[in-house]
Amino acid sequence: MFSWALALRYLQRRWVNVLGTIGVIVAVWSLIVVRGVFSGFIEDIRTDVRRSSPDLLVTTLPHATSFALLQSALKNDPDVVALAPRLRHYGTFFQRTGNAAMQSIELEFSNVDSSFVQLVGVDPAREREVTAFDDWIERARTRSLRDGMDHSAPQLGPELQVPAADELRARKRLGLAVPEAATAFRSLWPGILLGRERTRFNRTITVGTPLDLLSVDYVTAKDGTSRAVTLQRAFAFAGTFQTGARLFDDSVALVPIEPLRSMLGHDALDDGSVDLCTDVAVRATDGLTIEQLRIVAQRLTTLARTALNEARPGASPETLTWEEQNAVFLDAVDTERAMTTLVLFAVMLIATFLIFATLHMMVTQKTKDIGILCALGGSPRGIGQIFTRCGFVIGALGVVMGAGLGLLTLHSLNGINDWLFEQTGFELFPRTLFDLPKVPYRIEPGWIVAVAVGSFLLTLFVAWLPARKAARMQPVKSLSYE
Amino acid sequence: MNAPALSAHDVKKSYWLGKREIPILKGVNLAVERGEMVALLGASGAGKSTLLHLLGLLDTPTSGEIRFDGQPVHNFKVGARAKLRHQFVGFVFQFYHLIPELTAIQNVLLAAMMQKSVCQYWKERRTTRAAAEQILDEVGLSQRLSHRPAELSGGERQRVAIARALLQNPRVVLADEPTGNLDSETADDVMQMLFRINRERQLAFLLVTHNEDLARKCHRVVRLRDGMVVG
Ligand SMILES: Nc1ncnc2c1ncn2[C@@H]1O[C@H](COP(=O)(O)OP(=O)(O)OP(=O)(O)O)[C@@H](O)[C@H]1O
Ligand SMILES: [Mg+2]
Fold first, then answer.
1. What are phi and psi of B201, to 5 degrees?
2. Residue A465: which of A399, A390, A396, A405 has the closest Cα?
3. In sequence order, which residues have a C-beta less than 8 Å from that of residue A153 and are 6 or more positions away?
4. Where does ligand 1 bind, in terms of residues with CB under 6 Å?
5. What are phi and psi of B91, to 5 degrees?
6. In whole angstroms, what is the distance from residue A209 CA to residue A219 CA?
7. Cα torsion at A404, A409, A415, A419 (round to 10°)?
8. In chain A, which residues have their Cβ closer than 8 Å to the Cβ of B118?
9. What is the pLDDT of residue A294?
């Protein structure tokens, strides 16, 4: 009993101990809030990444792989629902304006300040069976409308062509040759879709605006020598897309696959041309877990390898799940979260060290009291408990208040963010940077319990050290302590 | 049944300074009967405090026996010694040794808390408090219940310390120069009070003092000289 009475009385008379409590509050609070927001962001990012990627991607294919060949091999797998060819290549753009070509389509508001794009040739009809292709375009459209802009063509042909009227208007504006009778006009340029951020602040681009695509290919002559050739083709800006995965949206331009094949020397009308693809996007049975997807991936790799090696031995294709396709990015975010958590643990350690220091000081100050308590019949155990109970009170207060404040902060995060912005013009969490309507957060009960229990045990432990010292004091020495 | 309340049998105590043994007590034999008031005299450094600590089980003798009611208790374990000390012995020190954070009554009540759980104490809190108030009244401090030690005079502090020693109804009070720090008038008052308590409660006292006059008023005087008790 006396240990409780004295613990409370000692604490009440020593406001330094509030420091320890505050330390624990801050540490617990930040561990919960920062982690909560981070996890919210990660969850959002994972959703976006998931939306931008096919379930599975058969990749690392040999040069000039035929899609038809792989398709016939892969479609037999029971878990394959649909397949779509992808043809990746690299290039750069120039936007034609009335007088001079504009210096490429620059990203004005992005970390990727480059006019280079990764061209991804898709077969729209197949692509929408495999990925959320239509949703990508729809998302960009609704968001552009929200910004008071419309960079979208509602009707895209199978080659992503823009409506003939739009192309005709663009041609007229640029002074290009047009037929006498506008009704006779047919679109000539294949369409190209750009990530929304690329054109977000470009007021000169409209649907139908021609973009000159410049690229390079290696061709091998009959005598075995190879050389680089430059390729050029005009596309019509057909609108924007937005998967939500910034890395994908900022770097990719979606083009119809056939014109890209033609550019690379495999026009469908030529004899001996190959229906080129560099990857095959796969939609698997709905509802498969990531582990199940990995198993399907292994099967597809085997199927693809067999099919490819029949034609040309030595191929070693790979199949990546949507997670593996984005592994570098997802791992980076996870690592970032882990690092932040680690830093916050250091805050916790400092807080508990503070508690240790104050309690240790208290034991020294209270040496004489310890002697008196012994003389009154206090057991060493009871005397030690005075200090563990001080730790208990400090820890319990800190953890409960920290966790409470943390949860409260998470719940009113958006309110706080908005309020700060209104009052000071400063945004704690810049939502526009991430193009999110709200600051995402996620309350993970497991994490909160772990933080609370962990911090509490840590406090008890650091209180136990001075308590042990107090319990081991020789009563006679304590009584004569000066 | 007639064993002395507290006795020491050939008790030796040495301190070590490095490898050098410094014998302080060299075979002390002493008995304090129930209700007896014994004065312990001795030069400074003779080992009076050391003996008191040994008798109160705050320290362990190098050899020899301490007996409570004839039962040897000196080699009990730490926890058991604390419990015995709590029930059997009340300590009064020269420098009062009150807990500065607690008021007079809380300092006294503390003695009742030492071996009780929160529940036990809570159940008995009314009777305990009444007992504490009564004892403080007995030592003449009924008006000073909620004063902190810093707000009390030396004599008042010592009275609180005595009340604290008495609360658990010990068999023996071990008082180490209880008036050594008080002016003679206050010291007289405090001593009168101790004599009264001794009479009224039939409580045994072992009183360390330097004051021969005072010692003569006790039932018996023993002297500690050269590490032994004489006459
Ligand atoms: N922890 C210790 N280590 C070594 N020597 C000690 C220790 N404690 C006490 N002593 C020595 O033991 C001797 C007896 O000390 P004690 O305090 O019992 O004397 P005392 O008779 O109470 O004296 P006083 O009348 O001044 O209070 C002293 O010489 C002291 O130096
Ligand atoms: Mg002494």
1. -100, -5
2. A390
3. A162, A163, A166, A191, A207, A238, A239
4. B 15, 24, 42, 44-50
5. -105, 140
6. 31
7. 120
8. 1, 4
9. 95
Task: Report the C-alpha gap between A22 and A33 in whole angstroms.
Answer: 16
3-state secondary structure of A419: helix
- Contacting B with CB below 8 Å, chain A residues are 1-2, 4-6, 9-10, 12-13, 368-369, 371-382, 474-476, 479
Beta strands B71-72; B89-92: pairing state? unpaired
- Spatial CA neighbour of A383 closest among B68, B121, B75, B86: B86
* Best residue in B13, B25, B73, B101 for a mutation probing chain A (most A CBs within 10 Å): B101
A368 contacts in chain B (CB < 8 Å) = 97
The DSSP element (H or E) to which A262 belongs, if any, is helix A257-263
pLDDT at residue A22 tops 80? yes
Beta-carbon contacts of A389 under 8 Å, excluding residues fewer than 6 positions away, are A3, A4, A7, A8
What is the C-alpha separation between A75 and A468, in angstroms, rounded? 70
Chain A residues lying within 8 Å of B53, measured CB to CB: 475-476, 479
Which position has the token pair 């009335």?
A: A98
In this prediction the pTM is 0.77
B101, two tokens = 């954070």
User: Taking 70 as the threshold, does the pLDDT of residue A372 lie above it?
Assistant: yes
Tell the residue number behind the tokens 């360390």, with chain if given.
Answer: B208
Residue B72 CA to ligand 2 center (angstroms) comes to 25
Report yes or no for ipTM above 0.85: yes
